[in-house]
Structures are given as C-alpha cells and as structure tokens.
Amino acid sequence: MSRAAEPIADWEGFDFETRQVHAGSYEDRNSGLRVPPIALSAGYVFDDFDDGVARFAGRSHWEGAASTSRGEVDAFTGSEPAPVYSRQGNPTNNVAEERLASLEGGAVAVAVSSGQAAISSALFALAGHGDHIVSTASIYGGTRILFGRSFARFGIEVDYVWDAEDDAEWERAIRPETKAIYTESIPNPRNDITDLRRIAEVAARHRLPLVVDNTVGTPALIRPFEHGANIVVHSTTKFLTGHGAAVGGAVVDGGNFDWAAAETAGRSFPLVTRAPRPGLASMLDRYGRGAYARAVRESVVNDIGPSLSPFNGFLLHQGMETLSLRMDRHVESSQRIAAWLEEQPEVESVDYAGLPSSPLHALAQRDYAARTGSVFGVTVRGGREGARAFFDGLRLFSRMTGIGDTRSMVLHPASSTHASFAPELNERLGITEGLLRLSVGLESADDLIADLRGGLDRVAAR
Ligand SMILES: Cc1ncc(COP(=O)(O)O)c(C=O)c1O
Q1: Pairing verdict, β 231-235 and 132-136
Q2: Helix axes 310-320, 91-104, angle to 10 degrees
Q3: Which of 63, 192, 320, 454 has the most beta carbons within 10 angstroms of its beta carbon?
Q4: Does residue 249 contact residue 236 with C-beta atoms inside 8 Å?
Q5: What would the 3-class secondary structure string for 392-436 be?
Q6: How many angstroms does the Cα of residue 159 sit away from the middle of ligand 1?
Q7: 235 C-alpha vs ligand 1 centroid, how far in Å?
C-alpha cells in the first residue's frame, strides 16, 4: 500500500491560480496519466439490463474516470447520475465544467458547443413560447440577432432596457410573463460595463434569475455571482480556451436562485420546479442546488443537441490553466494601448471603461479595479473611410471577427456584426461608421502600438 498522501479531490478554499490548474482534474491511478485524456466515446457501457434501465431513469450513479464531483448530486441517492450518452455529458468535458464552476464560484457548469448555444440553452431552460425576457441594450450583436430572429420565431419576446440605471425603465419592461433578465458584464464591442449589483437588485425584487454573459470579463476579472447574478454564460471560444482554435460555450448555475419562492410568487419555471409526469420528482427535488444546471443538461441540451466535442472540451480545460496569467497580460497591454490611442490626433474617442477619462471609470474601479478586459472600441476620424484606411493599414492586428485570442484582432462592427441593424438602432447603440473593435492579444504592447501607428498614419494621409 502506498504511503503517499491522498491526492486532493476538493479544491474549495484554494486560490484562483491553483484552482484554474487543478479543479476538476484527476490523476488516473490505472494509467498514470496526469493530464486528463480526451474521452472520445459517444456512449457508455451498461453493466447489465437493470443498469441500463436505471441509467435511463437517472437512478444509477457515476463511478467513472473523474474522482471528483460535478456537484449534480441526486438528493435521493447521494451520488452523481451515471452517464448514458455523450450528448448529455462526457468525462473530458466534465473536467472543464468543474473547473469553470470553481473559477466562477458557481454550483455546476454545463459545457455546450458554442457561446450562442450557451445563451440559447440557458434561456430555453427558463422561457418558452409566450414568455418574455428583458435584456440590457448593449450586448454582442450576434445575441441581439439571436433574440430578434430565432427567439422571436419560437415565441419568446425580448425587450431592451437602454438605461440600466433607470429603475422606472426596468419596471416598465418587466411583465408577469418575464422569465429572466439578461446582460453582459463587459459588453462587446463598446466596453460599456454594467452595474451588475444594481441589475441584480431589480431581478431579485421581481423574483427573476439574472443571466450574465461573462465572455469578455472572464472569472479572472469579474465573478458575476459575487455581484448577485444567478446564471453565467460563456463563449468559451474566447479567453477561456484562449488560443482561437476551438468554438465552445458553457452555462454556469450559481446555485443561488430560490426557484421554489419564485414559483410561489407566480414566476413559474416548469423545467426546474415541476415533475415531468406524476409520480416523478422535479429537478429541484432531485438536485437541489444544481437543479437548474440539470434542467439545462437533461431537458435542453439533450433534446436540442448542442453538446461540446470532447476534443474542444480538452482544449478548454487546458486553456483555463493559464487564464489569469493571460488576462493579466491582455489587460496590461489594453490599458497602455487605450491610453496611448486616446492621445493620438487621428482618434476621436476610445471606449475603455478602465481609462480615467471614461464616464464609467468609477464603476470600473469599484468592480474591476479598472481592469475592464481587452475588447474595446476606438473611433477614428473620417467616418467609414477613416475606418477603412485604419483597418487596411494594420499589419500585426488580424482583420477578422473574433475576440479573446492570443493574437490581436480588429473588426469594423458597422459593416459586420451590426450590418443587419437599422441605421437608427446602430446610432442608438453607438455603433458609428468610424468605430473599430480591437481585441488586444498577447503580443508585445510596443509592437502593437507601432502597428496601430501605421494604421493611424493612413488615416492622417487621407
Ligand atoms: C459576448 C459574446 N457572447 C457570445 C458570443 C457567441 O459565441 P460563439 O461565437 O462561441 O458562439 C460572442 C462571440 O463573439 C460574444 O462576444
């Protein structure tokens, strides 16, 4: 028998930097593998006939590769439900899920195939035909398109609040059939950060779960659950996986929303609180704190099918190992570049809440220590033609859609992510023809500034 101490299975209480390397991981005592392998298996073998029956009924428990718990513990058996098929879950993805749940300070995470799948799955578990969602207006263009097109076709209406500080606007927007409040911590593309605490108060007052897209922030910069959010969604394609190689997403259940009290107050969430048929238990009765995540996994992802490839799940859990280090560098360079850009004669304005000149600076200091990520807007002189000159003059920044890569990237929102919106809407959103979105990567800030100078020289030469 080994005299060595048992490996650590519970990472609670360890610092962020330790958890980002270890949470969810395990040592495989049989193979000696230290890095959890890619479990490329679509399904899982049943022990026998009765085990198959039990697994489909969710009555068999999991003693698979992961030595740690995903937190989806069945209140009746005290154990994890055993896996059935990789559309519902996979050991590689479980590592990423557990790591992300730990970093966000949530109860359970569910990995899905993209950020769009995360937003859809998170909200489909709350709202159906005839229901309603209230969102802040400044959100990623793709999410606005998702709400206006697919959600509308499925009978879920989304209304926007333009001034999140205005309580009266929230009160006017929220209806009896509203099922969630939705926002982004650091909105893409304009870095116009939201006061999550304030929105969380509105949500709590109306017994509504607050869903926050934390893609641009990441848990290294802000953990929305600490500010009152109930559900966090991510495009893991970006900073979490970190290298621009794999599309993915995740939904994190904070485990802090009182579903039963909401139901009593007239806000019903049937997938969480109601039994699927008489005689069966509801997700809430069965999974308690992880009930919502279980509803996302079993009742939405399993039905619709946006599960994450284990290959991408591997890249995700490996990417998260260096998250805080990368975010430090992303932010340090962005702060320098934003301050430099602001001084350039060819620049009209810079939207970076971490800048002392930003009207959002006080909030940025309070909630982000002025570290508001590395995705922000810069408006150059000369409108669309100025933007064109700048865009075409860059050599190190990649001209492409995407954020949160190791590489720096530039995009012209008005002609891309926001091209399908009416000019009046774009004007209201502040998406002007001269605005460019930068995503600052991990290259040397000096080299990036030299490249931006080259782009601005073309603006000056017009
Ligand atoms: C804030 C935000 N949320 C969600 C998404 C969608 O993510 P994905 O491209 O992984 O579907 C993006 C993509 O840019 C994003 O920036």
Answers
A1: unpaired
A2: 30
A3: 320
A4: yes
A5: HHCCCCEECCCCCCCCCEEECHHHCCCCCCCHHHHHHHCCCCCEE
A6: 20
A7: 5
Q: Could you tell me if the CB of 249 is within 6 A of ligand 1?
A: yes
Domains and CATH numbers, the chain: 43-320 (3.40.640.10), 323-460 (3.90.1150.10)
Nearest 5°: the CA angle 167, 188, 197 is 35
Is 187 close to ligand 1, i.e. is its CB under 6 Å away? no
Nearest residue CA, atom 7 of ligand 1? 115
Quote the pLDDT of residue 63: 58
Q: Give the distance (Å) from ligand 1 centre to CA of residue 244.
A: 12
Record the tokens describing residue 426, joined without a space. Answer: 């774009």
Confidence at 67, pLDDT banded by 50, 70, 90 = very low
Residue-wise pLDDT for 291-342, tens only, equals 999 999 999 999 999 999 999 999 999 999 999 999 999 999 999 999 999 9
Average pLDDT over residues 353-360: 98
Whether residue 113 has its Cβ less than 6 Å from ligand 1: no
Residue nearest to atom 15 of ligand 1 (CA): 140
The finding on whether 221 has its CB within 6 A of some atom of ligand 1 is no
Phi, psi of 184 (to 5 degrees): -115, 140
Whether 338 lines ligand 1, by a CB cut-off of 6 Å, is no
Q: Ligand 1: distance of its center to the CA of 461 in Å?
A: 35
Ligand 1 and 456: CB distance under 6 A: no
Using a cut of 0.70, tell me whether the model's pTM lies above it: yes
The predicted-structure confidence for 75-106, as pLDDT tens digits, reads as follows: 887 788 888 999 999 999 999 999 999 999 99
- In the numeric block, which tokens belong to residue 457? 């020289």
End-to-end CA distance of the chain: 77
Sequential DSSP letters for 93-129: HHHHHHHHHHHHT-SEEEEESSHHHHHHHHHHTT--T
Say if residues 233 and 212 touch (Cβ distance below 8 Å). Answer: yes
| Percent of the chain scoring above 70 in pLDDT | 98
Do 262 and 130 touch, CB atoms closer than 8 A? Answer: no
* pLDDT > 90? residue 198: yes
- In the reported structure, the alpha carbon of residue 216 is separated from the centroid of ligand 1 by a whole-number distance in angstroms of 9
Calpha distance 24→57 (Å, rounded)? 26
Partners of 210 in beta bridges: 181
